[in-house]
Amino acid sequence: LWQRLSKKEANDINSVQKSIVHHVTTTLARSVYNMDNFAAYQAVALSTRDRLISQWNETQGQLSRADPKRVYYLSLEFLLGRSMDNALLNLGLKDTYGKGIEQLGFNMEEVIESEVDAALGNGGLGRLAACYMDSLATLDYPAWGYGLRYNYGIFQQRIVDGYQTEYPDYWLNFDNPWELPRLDISIQIGFGGHVQIIEDEYGVTRHNWIPATNVQAIAYDVPIPGYDTENCNNIRLWRSKPTKTFDLTSFNEGNYEKSVEDATNAEKITSVLYPNDNTMAGKELRLKQQYFWTAASLDDIVRRFKKSMREWSDFSDQVAIQLNDTHPALAIVELQRLLVDEEMLSWDDAWDIVTKTFAFTNHTVLPEAMEKWSVPMFEYLLPRHLQIIFDINLFFLQKVEMKFPNDRGLLNRMSIIEEAQPQQIRMAHLAVVGSHKVNGVAALHSNLIKTTIFKDFVHYYGEDKFINKTNGITPRRWLHQANPQLSDFITETLGNTKWLKDLSLLKGLVAKINDDAFRKKWMAIKRANKVRLAELIKERCNVEVSPDALFDVQVKRIHEYKRQFMNILVVIHRYRTIKSMTAAQKASVQPRVVIFGGKAAPGYYIAKLVIKLINSVAAVVNQDPAVGDLLKVVFIPDYNVSVAEVIVPASDISQHISTAGTEASGTSNMKFVLNGGLIIGTLDGANIEILEEIGEDNIFIFGCMANEVEDLRHAQRYRGVPMDSALQGVISAIEKGVFGDPKIYQPLISTLTVGKDFYLISADFASYIAANQAVDQAYKDQSEWSKKSIRCTANMGKFSSDRSVKEYADEIWNIKPYPVIDEG
Ligand code: 26Y
């Protein structure tokens, strides 16, 4: 084997092996002769980590010296998934490590699969943050992420008797080689207490916040290597700890238990990720998380700025801060507090700096997702911040009044404080007022927010403040890593790997569309990916599915607006149709495997019932001999990033079927199409822009448009529009008990009652069935289908997160790449 390798390669493999063995025998204190896959994973991870650390040090050292403007991406969620495969590919070392580990008797794929996901996020928003970090690093932007180091990521989902049950995701059980604890970086964060007003010798009043309790924030750094660059960025995650001198008073008073209890409360702050996606719960601990994180991050950012000995007026020339939704909106208030109370700037000077520094990304228009905090609870935790919010609001509303006098309704609507019982702080309004730019995440969504939730603000500030930044995904993880066969084939076809850094180059594939051999290979790769998914389905669901059937996938968080319910209702319709067929008719049915996956928020009753219904339908359909392989239904438990990496390359068609106007963007739609999967979807979110890029012949669109939704709801409510007749048939089958005790599903079925069908399942039902039939028809012509599939991939250049990140850098952050110089 050695002889078949070039000398350089052998040397590289040799040094890689040495480093692996070194970690096995020292760090892990094990023997190379007594190693399992997990130990091999740990050793490879530690060895890779060494290389990451040296790149990290080099990058951060050079950046400290040059001190260019940086962007800080504040996100409560970073859904990174696994790191090893990604790090090795980005460093260009996967082959070397693969060969090195093989010679030690291990299989790289198995070793990779030993890693647990870093699942510090719920869904789209958290995964977007991870894709953006990959692109920022790859494009050499000086960027840091700031987040929380939760002990428990998103819960693990198991299906018991058809129901979702949640298990804790204690992901740090076996140590995390991808983080660097910075035990020396510790910041005190206060809570509660009171505000002192001091008058200085010149008669100027100052506010001094005296917190009642303090906790410590400890930094953990996660290196983010770019692809094919020396640049290595950072995500700094904060962990809460009791302060060293934790509550000495109660300790000295002999109240030992109480002081230990307070210490436990401090640790609680970063204990668990809230598992709600798009539904606000208003819990005190969540507000504590938000303040703990924003205060620690700002302290760190301000400390770094102060090292450069510049004027405060230069702050926004050195620092851009992006708010990933309203979750970090408190950062606006905290920076104003630091500048006014601690750095003694005037209110107006401080506010000018604040608004030039922050920009805000909105990810939703759903009312239930809008963050609001009760004023009394907020005051108890953050008394000084409440005063500042009231002042920000007062000065803001005074300006509104100047511009539009005597409009109390307007002031009421625009106020940061909602006059409810008790009063509520509207975090979205705070984020808009405190930022210089506000963006939505797809063209339709960015327009919608201008005419709905932020309408008055557009009127007041003008159009320029409200912009669009269509989401993107990183082609490194979502094609190169997840679909290595297709990636290699594309590289072979295009002649090089440049497309991985300039995704528009995929256009070059169009020239191959009429090449039969090319198309055959393209489809063979898809089939191989389907075989791999079929194995996962066998393993996780114990169902055998044929890779020759059409694979139809809907994987995403379970939510009423995403309409998984509508999907399963049409599956039932399909089932009933097949059952009513003669053998001759059945012969022309296109076999289909309908694949679901996704988590429901633990308190979201209706979403959990949808999961139960899917599993009950699967149980009936999969064992019905009258149906056989013509239809299979599976619910893959515990959908997460690493499962997505298996599912995405294997789909023929995927479902993105939200009621128009409800899905801000969607990003899995991009992942599927990039991997040559077609989509069936509504005119919603980024589907619209995907349609524009790939052309209407390569996508199956159905249903109403966003601007029709209000009228349809109205008609349904007041004109007694009857329920769709096919839908009626499906409902009566459920009610007859075809899928088990119908009483279980009553609350679910009630959501379809005429006049209450908020997500318009009935209105879109007929066109959805028709679109599904069109899919079956199209799939039968495999040659035409393969052309569509290639056209899909070829035209997805726009949806690289590199493009998104460049737009943010140029139009919002005003930052430039700072390439790290390789000093050997
Ligand atoms: C307030 C709290 C409960 C909350 C927590 C998480 C609210 C929202 C979220 C998460 C939202 C989210 O993931 N939104 C999704 O963001 C994606 C990236 O922009 C979009 O593609 C997707 O359409 C949107 O639903």
TrEMBL record:
SUPFAM superfamilies: UDP-Glycosyltransferase/glycogen phosphorylase (SSF53756)
Keyword terms: Allosteric enzyme, Carbohydrate metabolism, Glycosyltransferase, Pyridoxal phosphate, Transferase
InterPro entries: Glycg_phsphrylas (IPR011833), Glyco_trans_35 (IPR000811), Pyridoxal_P_attach_site (IPR035090)
Catalysed reactions, as listed in the record: [(1->4)-alpha-D-glucosyl](n) + phosphate = [(1->4)-alpha-D-glucosyl](n-1) + alpha-D-glucose 1-phosphate
EC nos: 2.4.1.1
Sequence positions bearing N6-(pyridoxal phosphate)lysine: K671
Role, per record: Allosteric enzyme that catalyzes the rate-limiting step in glycogen catabolism, the phosphorolytic cleavage of glycogen to produce glucose-1-phosphate, and plays a central role in maintaining cellular and organismal glucose homeostasis.
Name assigned to this protein: Alpha-1,4 glucan phosphorylase
Organism encoding this protein: Podila minutissima
Gene: GPH1
